[in-house]
Amino acid sequence: MKKFYQLILTIVIVFTLVIGTSHFAFAQGEANVDDGPLKEADWFKNPDAAALNESHADNKNWITKWYGPDGNYENNEGFQKSGRRDLIDEGTKGRLTELSLSTLAGLKKTQTLKMAWGGDHGGTRDWTVFELDAASQDNMNRGGPADNIDTYVICVIAAPKDMKAVMSPAHDDHAQIWINGDKWYNNTTWTGGAQVVNYNVEVKLEKGANVVLYRCGETGGAAYINLHFDDNTHKVCKIYPDKSEDQKGFFREIAGVLPVNPTGKATTTWADIKRNR
To answer: What is the pTM for the complete model shown?
Structure first.
């Protein structure tokens, strides 16, 4: 009888471990924030949900290739001061904003607009394609100052249909994310590791092109900006930059796979992009 009870206990322990592991794997694709996009009054409010503190180090979907300014905004006086300022608006004298940059029409303007941030803040920045090491605690530095910086990165997600997706950001410190002209995420608290996620955020993707603008402001210490989506999104969608290495390649890449006349909020003319290559 004693051996029987020991066997039952062993089975229960193994079953519990399996269920626990399965739940953790499932949780990586399960949203704990699903009330977006953020209303304007909540643009700078942190999520109400409890932080998950999940390690996603084993996730293979981290986005490592991005399009954006070829250097950071420097000397930001700390993310507490810079976080509420629209540095895209400041750098283009209002011709672009963070919201408009997260649309196809705004993205197109980066072909002719540079970020004029001034000598005290990194100077004039052009736009290019670059890679970030998702495992690095300091991938925001990009050869410049390590502290008091803001980084902007962009990717385009080509979705086969209107769909829901779950995005999982990791960041140090203040992160903000816009998609197709809406703000979906704001969090002033670092996540605790380059591949540690506190919030899995449900978002909406439109059929066709979806512009994701991700900003992170850093004060001191580690400095990282990382993002992945749920497995299904990475399976059925194409994410760009892909093979491109520079601005011209990036626009050539997305112009070749997206409709000439997309509809909806994020509108632009891809024929114009092809002419401007």
So the answer is: 0.86
